[in-house]
Design goal:
The protein has helices at 24-32, 56-66, 69-78, 80-90; strands at 3-10, 16-21, 45-53. It is globular. Helix content is 45%, strand content 25%. The protein starts with a strand and ends with a helix. Strand 1 (3-10) and strand 2 (16-21) form a beta hairpin. It has a 3-stranded antiparallel β-sheet with strand order 2-1-3. The longest helix is centred in the last third of the chain and has 11 residues, at 56-66. The chain has one domain (3-90): GIY-YIG endonuclease. Belongs to the UPF0213 family. Keywords: Endonuclease, Hydrolase, Nuclease. It comes from Candidatus Portnoybacteria bacterium CG11_big_fil_rev_8_21_14_0_20_40_15. This is Endonuclease.
C-alpha cells in the first residue's frame, strides 16, 4: 500500500492545493464533488503532481514540508516547465 502526497490545481482560479491520502483517485473525486470544505470554492481541480511513499510517516512529513514556503518554491522548480507553458498559453 502506498501513501500519496499530491498537488491539485484549480481549473477556475489560480489556486494550488497540497494534500495527503492513501487513496489518490478517491481523494481527488472527493475534492471535485465538494466534500472538502477548504477546496470546495475552487472546484474543479486537476491533479498536476503526486509522489508515492511506502511509509505513511514519510508521506506526511513530505506534505508538511511542501506546505512551507521553501517546499512551495521547490515544487515550482520541479514543475517549472508546466507552469512556464501554462503562462505562455494564457497570453
Amino acid at each position: 500500500m502506498f501513501h500519496y502526497v499530491y498537488l491539485l490545481e484549480s481549473l477556475k482560479f489560480d489556486e494550488l492545493y497540497i494534500g495527503y491520502t492513501s487513496d489518490l483517485r478517491k481523494r481527488i473525486d472527493e475534492h471535485n464533488r465538494g466534500l472538502n470544505f477548504s477546496t470546495k470554492p475552487y472546484i474543479p481541480w486537476q491533479l498536476i503532481h503526486y509522489e508515492a511513499y511506502k511509509s505513511e510517516k514519510d508521506a506526511r512529513r513530505r506534505e508538511k514540508y511542501l506546505k512551507t514556503s521553501q517546499g512551495s518554491r521547490l515544487l515550482k522548480r520541479i514543475l517549472k516547465e508546466y507552469f512556464y507553458s501554462k503562462r505562455l498559453n494564457k497570453n
